[in-house]
Each structure stands twice: as C-alpha cells, then as structure tokens.
Amino acid sequence: MTDPRFPVLTQKQISILKESGTVINFENETAVFKAGDSAYDFYVVLDGAIFIKDPINQNQILASHGINEFTGDNSMLSDRSIPFSAYASKGSTVLRITPAELKEVISKHSDISDILLSAFIQRQETMLKEFSGGIKVIGSEKSKDTYVLRDFMEKNHIWHTFLDTDVSQEAQQLLENFGLKEGDLPILISITGEISKKPTLAELAKQTGVLIEYGDELFDVLVVGAGPSGLAASVYAASEGLTVITIDGNAPGGQAGKSSKIENYLGFPTGISGNDLANRAYIQAQKFGCTISIPHKAEKVEYNGNYFTLCASNGKNIKAKTIIAATGANYRRLPVENVEKFEGSGVFYSATGMNASACKNELVGVVGGGNSAGQAALFLADHAHQVHVIIRGNDLGDKMSDYLVQRIYTTPNIIVHKNSNITQLNGAHYLESLVLDTQGSKQTIGISNLFTFIGAKPCTEWLNGIVSMDERGFIYTGADVTEGALTRCSIYSQRKPQSLETSIPGFYAVGDVRKGSVKRVASAVGEGSMAISQIHQYLAELVMTV
Hints:
This protein has 546 residues and is α/β, with parallel strands linked by helices. It is built from 15 helices and 28 strands. Strands 12, 13, 14, 15, 16, 17 and 28 form a seven-stranded mixed β-sheet that branches. Strands 19-26-20-21-22 form a five-stranded parallel β-sheet. It has a four-stranded antiparallel β-sheet with strand order 2-6-4-5, with no helix packed on it. Strand 20, helix 12 and strand 21 form a beta-alpha-beta unit. Helix 8 packs across helix 15. The longest helix has 25 residues, at 521-545.
C-alpha cells in the first residue's frame, strides 16, 4: 500500500505538470533547496531520487522521493521557510516548478490539487508529531516570555523543540557553548544556527515566513481576524476570484482554535481540535490565492467614502474596497488583583498539547461553564492528577452542551466546584496555589496551572467608533443598525444594510464580534461565507455608481 505522504503521480498528471515546469538534469549531487529558504521550487523526480536531509546532520536522511514522487509541504503555499534541505542524487532528472506556477496548477487541476495538499498536510503532521528538531526555544517553562513564543509556534504549526532551562542539561550546555546568560532568555536558535535573544513575535514571524509582505494594491476584500468566520470568508472570497488579504494578531483559529476538541461540528463525527480545523482552513484559503499575514494587528481603520484604509501594527497601510470585521471576542480576565502577573506563568486562556505536558500529574483548574471550558477539562484530565472545574452558578449544564456535562461527571479525576469564585492567586514568580470561595467557605488548593474561559469581550478597539456598536462593543449589523446611525451615501439612500452589513456600506461584521451572533463554530463559518455573497452585491453597486 502506498504511503499517503509519498504518493506516486500518474503519467497523465506529470504531463500536465510539465506544461508549467522545466526538466533539469543533475550530473552531480546537487542541493535543490536548503533549510531556511522561503522561496523554493517544487520538484517531481523523473529519474533518480531526491533526499530530504537534516539541516544539522547532513548524513541523516529523513525521507527520500523516488521516481514520479514529489517534494514540498504546506510552506510552499504561504512562503514560510522550509526547515529541511533537499539534494538531488547524481544523475537525477527532475521537473522543476516555481511556487507561483504550482499555485496555478493547484487552482486549475483538482485531481492534482487533492494529491498534493493531502500529502502536504500529512507531511506537516508527521514533522510536528514524530520528528525532533526545527527551531530551538531555550527558556524556562515557567517564564511568561518563553510561553508567548512557544504558544505562537504551537498555534501556527511551526516546527520547534523546547529546551527547559529548569531541567534540561542540553539547554544549559547550549547556553555555555554560546556564551549566553540567564538574562538573555528566552533564546531562539534557528535551523540555520542563528541566535536571537529575547525576540519579539514579529521577529519570529518574519524569520519563519508567517508574516507576509504585500504591496500597495487596492484589495477587493480585507478580512480582519482569522477565526472560523474570517477564514470562511477568506476561502469563499478567494475561490470566487476576489483579491483577498487576511490578517490576524496571533494565529488562525480565534476562540475555536483554543478548543482542544470540537465534537459537534458537522462532518467530524470523532471530533477535531480547533487548532487542526483552523490550520486546514488556513491552507485552504491559501490554496485559492488568499494572502494571510500573522501576527498582523489592526490598529485603526479609516473610510474616505470610496475605500477603507487599515493602519496595521507593522506601520503599513492596507487598502480595500470592502472590509470584514471578524476579530471575535477574547476571554475576560479573572477579577483577581494580581492575575496579570501570572499570565503565561500559571494562568492561561487556551489548553493545547504544550500546556498538557506541563500539567502531567499536577492539580489543574478550569474556570468557566461554556463548551470551551468543558472541552479543556476533559482534555487536561488525560494528563493531570486532578482537574478542578470552577463555575459561579449552580448548574454546569446551563451553558455547556449535555454531552460534555455527562462526560465530566463520569470522569473520576474531575471535580466540579459550583457557586464558587477564585479570590486569590499565590506564588512568587509563577502560580503555586489559589484560594477558592464557595458560598463563604474558603479553601486553598495547590493549583499551578489555571485555565480561564469566562465572559466575552469583543475585539473592537481598532474601530475607534467608526461603525455603530452597543455599549459592550459588539457591532450592530442589518436591521439592528438604527436609522440615525447610518452613514449617509448614495447606496444607503437606495436600500437598507444587508444582514451582515454595518452602518457603513461595504463594511461587514461576522462571528463573535457581531451583536446577536450565536457563538458557535458552525454559525461563524456560515456568516463568513454569507458575507461574501453580500459583498458581491455591494461591489456590483459600486460599479453602477461610478
């Protein structure tokens, strides 16, 4: 049986690919791309072989591609840097295709697209789960700065290895070998050996190719936020031929990306993690030509009556005919005096595999009564000694799906605390314990990892009141936009806002940031796709008014 990571192309498929590529012969062993390259070509082996080698130990062959097999992974679609080196063996003949030409082939030929993308996804999963290597992250597991870097790489599927200076002899040896000190932490060592002391997320993103450069063009659609609604809008807009740019301040997935397992989303009977769902949508959007740049935070937006200009965190402006606000909502902080001190060093807002490894045999707390809290509790229960679920109310099923409630109550190492609040967090540098108040009865619990999923604060600060919002900051759309709030223009003199359109024509809001949204992944995806059909109507109106 053929390994799905290394499928063999048919002669018909190779003939199609030859129309877009160039046949090359190598007399001697030759590097076709090297670790760290962000712009590298796609190769089909016609004769001989291409060997994928470890960038540090060139004698270690990680994989090989034989006749009619091909190189590449997801990074080819997003200009991310490749973490491996590849060498064509002596006497090999290959078909070389540039990334731009490859994207054209993928968009035009569905059978080839299916084979390539399936292999790309599975290769990435193998790399992340089975191989040790990539970027080295050196720092303390209890450090907030280290956590921020690790969390970003985890959620953006960047291959890396973490070396904990608190326990790792290798970490201490590397510090000594490079003449580095504790004050230099956290440290990144790239796959090419470059050292970065205390890097910012922007520096990390630029190094790995996650942060994309773009020109001064006028896009048809600007999507702000890469959660389920933003990614759905990106996929549908790009697939329908619109020029699209999508930005996000952290990682694809939004609130859904923080869910350890989503089981009630149509088409996934055994469930899928929010992170995996987001990554697949991220790849899907790029397959159709959408430009996605992360971390790219919106700071303010302006409207001149013809198009929108977004001022972004990198100092550059993005111009677009239409804009979709898909920035979602963030979980609120616990109302405890020193909670900020422990964020990233004991207090977290998502539960990933990285968090689970730190919770092994520990006491863990989960605050909140929604589905995300329930999913996190069940996920962490497989690793922690005990999981303490803390809710303010008296009924766990008030906001949580019944299937999650039933599983929580049948999991022996999950303890539910009803009518309870956290009143104090304790620890010198990282969380060591907390004080729980249950209807006036207080107890101290030695919880060192606390995951909070409470409330929802819309991410609308960047809007500066440009569109109509409620008192909490959620955006009004459609019939909820009052007559007095409408921006006066020729379009709104002819019609009222569409169901997802705001007080400014051409400006749309979808997902959790929208007033009245359902706060479910399926509805968010639906709104993202619906917004594109409404944008087509608006763009047609623009043409008529010119």
